[in-house]
Write a structure and sequence with these properties.
The chain has about 325 residues and is of the alpha/beta class. The chain has ten helices and 17 strands. The chain folds into two domains: about 160 residues, Medium-chain alcohol dehydrogenases, catalytic domain (Quinone Oxidoreductase, Chain A, domain 1, Alpha-Beta Complex); about 130 residues, NAD(P)-binding Rossmann-like Domain (Rossmann fold), CATH 3.40.50. It is about 30% helix and about 25% strand. The chain is globular and about 60 Å long.
């Protein structure tokens, strides 16, 4: 079966591997769609803190079931969304239902080989039937679930003024689910094209370009109070540090993105606001189900997908996705 391996940063190799055979409790699935995530771009450029090479990338996955174990509730031909966070089920976090931050987690495409291949064998409990969803939609569930999880972590409420820093796919996912909760969403980004995309396809009319005068604009939007909740989805250490200043008194700051750096902030400013600081990692099965219900209800635009390529085209075309001029929001790899 065709498999694309990131051998070293910047090097993608097409290779042939043996089709896997499922072990007890595993299903064999045929990969049909692979969404390209910022994590994949960081792996390709050599800027991912939890990874060793070589690695098969790909964790935003839609598949069809080829073989399923008895009692799994799955049947051959089912379309499934894949939860790529292989949690152990027995650590303290898992026993509390926090499988997204399992102590022994193995994320497909990061800690172990992922979905840029034709077939995978996976434990059946990480496969969710995606009835009523297209293959494209099923492949988008994972990154949308990250946004849904962050909004749930923040306990976002109707009428809250919310700022999302970073208008890439994760920031847009946060925006979709914050608005579903009734929040008044503002986006800030350094790229006008990303903000224009959010205005066009998500209907977000409050956007601010990063740069001179941005603090004054954010202050004016909130009558000088700044934002009850700020979400960082930039993946930029300096942006994360700057974001502390945009949190209202008694507000909440949610770090959705991850950087391979130490983050510092002003302790007096942090304390006088009594800021709540939250990390938001991955997503849970409940978040996946929430996203799929939102998709079935028509709350998530398919226009988030802007670029496509086949699996065999990945070695040649993947590097182009890193060019801001390409205008990529969400790229989708199609597996024949």
């Amino acid at each position: 079966m065709l498999t694309i391996v990131c051998d070293t940063p910047g090097t993608l190799i097409a290779t042939e591997r043996q089709k896997p055979v499922p072990a007890a409790g595993e299903a064999l699935v045929k990969i049909r769609r692979v969404g390209v995530c910022g994590t994949d771009l960081h792996i390709f450029t050599g800027n991912q803190p939890y990874l060793s090479y070589p690695r098969v990338m790909g964790h935003e996955l839609a598949a069809t079931v080829e073989e399923a174990p008895d009692g799994s509730g799955l049947s051959a031909g089912d379309t499934v969304a894949i939860i790529p966070y292989m949690s152990c089920g027995h650590c303290d976090a898992c026993l509390k239902g926090r499988t997204n931050c399992c102590r022994n987690i193995g994320v497909l495409g990061v800690h172990r080989d992922g979905g840029m291949t034709e077939y995978l064998c996976l434990p059946a409990e990480f496969l969710l039937k995606a009835d009523g969803l297209s293959l494209d939609q099923a492949a988008m569930v994972e990154f949308l679930a990250i946004g849904a999880h962050a909004v749930a972590r923040a306990k976002t409420r109707s009428g809250e003024k919310v700022l999302i820093a970073g208008a890439g796919p994760i920031g847009l996912a946060v925006a979709v689910f914050a608005r579903m909760e009734g929040a008044d969403v503002t986006l800030i980004d350094s790229r006008r094209d990303r903000l224009d995309f959010a205005e066009r396809h998500l209907g977000i009319t409050s956007t601010v370009m990063l740069g001179e005068g941005d603090v004054e604009q954010l202050s004016a939007i909130t009558d000088g109070n700044f934002f009850e909740t700020v979400f960082d989805a930039t993946g930029n250490p300096k942006a994360i540090e700057r974001g502390f200043g945009f949190v209202a008194h008694a507000g909440t700051y949610v770090l959705v993105s991850i950087v391979a750096s130490n983050i510092t902030f002003s302790d007096p400013e942090f304390h006088k606001r009594e800021t709540t600081l939250l990390g938001s990692r991955n997503a849970t099965a409940a978040d996946f189900h929430h996203v799929m219900a939102a998709m079935r209800a028509g709350h998530v635009p398919d226009a988030l997908i802007t670029h496509r390529m086949s699996l065999s085209q990945v070695p040649e075309q993947f590097a182009g996705l890193t060019d801001p001029a390409a205008g990529v929001v969400k790229a989708m790899v199609e597996v024949a």
